[in-house]
Every structure is written in C-alpha cells, then in structure tokens.
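User: Predict the full complex structure for these chains.
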Amino acid sequence: MGRLFGRLDDVTGDAGYDDHPPRMGFFTDTSVCIGCKACEVACKEWNSVPDDGYLLTGMSYDNTESLGASTWRHVAFIEKPTVSTSSAEATVDLGMPGHGPPGGSNDQTTEPGANDVRWLMSSDVCKHCTHAACLDVCPTGSLFRTEFGTVVVQEDICNGCGYCVPACPYGVIDVREEDGRAFKCTLCYDRLKEGQTPACAQACPTESIQFGELSELRQRADNRLAELHGQGVDVARLYGRDPEDGVGGDGAFFLLLDEPEVYGLPPDPVVTTQDLGSIWKSVGAGAAAVAALGMAAFAGRRR
Amino acid sequence: MSPREEVVPEAEFASYYGRPVIKQPTWKTPDIPMYFFLGGLAGASAVLAEGAAVSGLPRLERIARLTAAGGAAAGTVALVHDLGRPARFLNMLRVLRPTSPLSVGSFILAPFGTLSGIAAASHLTGRLPRIGRIAGVGAAALGPPLATYTAGLIADTAVPAWHEGHRELPFVFGGSGAAAAGGLAMIFTPLDQAGPARRTALAGAVLELAATETMQRHMGMVGEPYRQGRSGRLMKLARELTVAAAGATLLLGSRSRAVSVLAGAASVAGSVVTRFGVFEAGLASARDPKYTVVPQRRRLDSREPATAGTRVSGTPAPGTNGM
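Assistant: Here is the predicted structure of the two-chain assembly.
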C-alpha cells in the first residue's frame, strides 16, 4: 500500500507494478457534449450492464439520475435560464442544441426569458482517483489498481460488504441489490488489455469523451481551456485535473461550464483516508479509555 | 438557480436537482447499528469479565463472560447477514489491510469471538481453567478496540456527519460500549458483586455524553442531523436514557436491586439508541447534498478568495484548478 494522499505521479508503480504501461484515463470535454447518451448505451451494451429501471424523473432529459451499480456513464442535463445582461453578447455559440434556428441567440427571443435557456450536458463517469477511497477501504482486496492505473472491482472476490459505497467522495460505486456485489466503471479493462478504446469514448460522436494517456489528456485539456478562454468562454474550468487536489487528481477528469455542484459533482472532494492516521489514533485512544475505565472500576473499594 | 434554495434558506448552494452527491450507505438497519452495539457490549464485557476474575467476583464474571461471547457471536451473525454475498464472509480474512478499518476490525472480531467463546465455555463447564483464563485475558485485550473500531469504520467514509466526527466517535462508541456492558451486568448481578459494573456503566455514560457533546459542538452545520429530524430524536432519547440510568445508578444503584435492574436496562437501551442515532445521522447527512456541497464550497472559496462570491456568466472563472 502506497501513499494515501497528496501528489503522486506514478500511481501504478506506487501500487506495486515494476513495469507497467502509462496511466490511461478520460478527458470529458462537456463543452462539446450534445447529450446523445451514446456513451450510456455503448457502456451498457459492451459491459452487459443490466437495466436500472425505466422511470421518468422529470429532470430535463435525464432519466438515468446518477451513476450507480448499473449506470457507469451518466449524462446530466441542466436547463438553466440565462441571465440577460450586456455581457451575454460576449458569449460564443458552441453549437449547443436549443430552441430556434442554429446560431440563434438572445435576439431571437420574442418573450424575454421564455426561450432563454442555456443547456449544460455532461457525461459523468467513475473518476479512477489517484487516491481511491473505495480501494483503500475495501476489506477483501476486491477493488484493485490495474496496470493502467485504473480502479477495478474483482467481482469474484467482492462479498458485498458495501464499504466502498459511502467511501467514494463522488457517489459513484454502488451495490447492485439483486446481485449483492458492488459494481462500477472498469474503464473497459478488457478493451484496454486489447489496446482498444473504452466503449463510451469509441461511441462518442463529438469527441466529448476523449481516451488516452493521462499526461497527454491533461495537455490536451489545458490547450482546450486556453482556447475557450481565448474565445471569451470564461466560465470554462477543468475539474479533477489538478494532481495536487484532495484525491491526488482524477484519472477521468472534465471540462465544465459551471460550478461542479451544478452537475452534481462535489466542489472540493477529499479522499477520506487522508485522515486515516487521525482516525486510527482516535480509535486507539478510545480503546485505551475503555480499558482504563474498566480497570479503574475494579481499583475502587469493593462493595 | 438552485432548486433547493427555497428548501434550505440558511445555506444557499447549487445542486443537481437536489440529488445527493455521495451515495447513501447500503448497510441495513437494524443489522449494522446492532452490530456496532453488540461489538461495544461484548468488547467492554470482556474487560469486565477479566477484572471480575482477578477480583474474585464469580457472579459478575459469569454474566460478563457470557455477554462477551454471546455479543461477539450475535454481532458476527448481524455482520454476515448484512453482506450482499454472505457465503463469501471468509473473504474478509483474505488480506489484512490497514487502510480499511473493516479489514482490521475483522481481524479483531475473529480472534475476539474465538477467545471469548473459549473463556465462556471454560467458565461454564469448569474445564481447562488455565486455557480459559488465558483466552479471557486475550479477549480483554481485544475488547476495547472491538468496541471502538466500528467508529473508525464509519468515520473513514465520505459521509459528512461521520467523517467530521472522526476524532470523537471512537470515544462515543467506547463510552457507549462500557455503559452497555456495565448496565447489562447490573441487571444480572447481585448488588454486592455489581460495584465494578456500576462504576463501568457510570464512567462509560460520562465518556459517551462528553464525547457526543464535544463532537456536536465543533461540527458546525454538518452536525445538524444529530440534533434534527429522526436521527436528532434518537440522539435525544439516547441521552435521556443514559442520563437517567447514570442518575439512578449514582443515587440508589448500590442499595436497591430493583433500581439496579432498571438503571442497567436503561443504560443498555441508551447504548442501543445511540448507535441507531449515529447511524441515522450519517444517512441523513449523505441524503442531503447540502452537507457535502456547502462545507466544500466554503473551503474552496477560502482558498480562492479572489473569485469567491460573485459568479455569473462573464466574470472571471474560478481558476483552472492549480495548473
């Protein structure tokens, strides 16, 4: 077991691999996501993930709700009324779907506010954290770090204790009720072993989901961010790219057009095992207190 | 902007349709809170049993030994029953992982259950007394960590009301375990042998109450579930039971057998309700995205003061995450 928090440039080597391929990951550029859900479908099909109900949620076009044991890619839809200010003219048409003809902007609006909707779409996925809480807390060793630096559940070992579920700071992994075991995105471990692209990235028609070596993806993301900022899209920001953040950076990171919490992502996640030392110290001190009060109970005058 | 703003006016925050950010634990009720209780009861009882053996209090020793063994056995059943794949229980002992309190805890529970079982069997049958005592000493050594590791287990998660209490929760659970062990022994032990049980219950109650108070005080808004809603009511009931038990024990516990029985029962009940209260508080804090988003947003904004506050389209973006 290696480092529990902080910057870690070779997570795969830290996990015990002497000779290993480069760390692989996803860069999901939500600014070009069109919400087609091809990633959701491709993931389900390739990984034989069962359905998780056919309920209508009323949450815009999103009936998948969130990531879970049977949803390994989840496309979020946010319809936000745009603020009609003078700075709205500075926005750049990203080719996002909307009402009215392409290229239409605020001047198309007949009723002010009625059609003024800004669409945010984002395909969420397991972050394959550098410091993965799910892996740290797994008591059976079912969750492990692959040679590609990704985090995968070995389903033949998982006993369904469920500890990984509340440990994940992103709410990704979950136990499949009818099965009893925990499931999540494997970053298509089987396809990676064959040198193939994960199913979701393969199916993405706009290259919103980009797969590759993490170091290269980070470079690509930095360039894309600079490009968007240059176009005046100041709301663009990278999420999970920073190797110094609370989880040591994500193996799957994002370019977002609003605050992370708007997409249902935690704004500043920290791996719980960062406090492991403090936790064990308190457990030890608490145990010492129980032992001490137990002994003290017999030290007094016997009644 | 946020659909939750009307619901929680005291803390404005954005969320995705008010949905939780983290997953709620899939652990079942009553399995897991009962396991927390039984582990505390059994662990502290093993200490009580060994003290009674050393001090020559056979009636106290008997009930404490039986409680330690029975609690561990029942707790193991609850734990296995909670697994999604109970048949794979032994995978818990497949590896020892210091980063997983559940893994370490399994390596505490398994020998504790065995040793406390041997000690109890030897005590009941009178056979192999030397081995029985050695087993009893081993159980007494493993008992306190058995009582407190479960607090570390829930603290080592992303659940705000558990994680933020990681410094105090082991004392809450340890004190609660001692209160339960002392209380149960008070019910079944004659007054003249129950002195150490009373003192254990009292000291445990004081420790539990003090640690709970300290925890809630420094937790801020994340501690709300310990005061509000269903979990808040459970915590209040637990406190009332524990205080009533301690008061009765202090005043009449050594004089009236009836009071000793009632106070002991209240102490045990208080310990049970404490675990359910803490458990439910964690679930409540996982359910409401407020407890995840607001503290993280505050932390983030305090690190990036230049961009805090005014965030509308067109203003400078909040950094690019440390590039």
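The CA atoms of residues 36 and 150 of chain B lie 6 Å apart.
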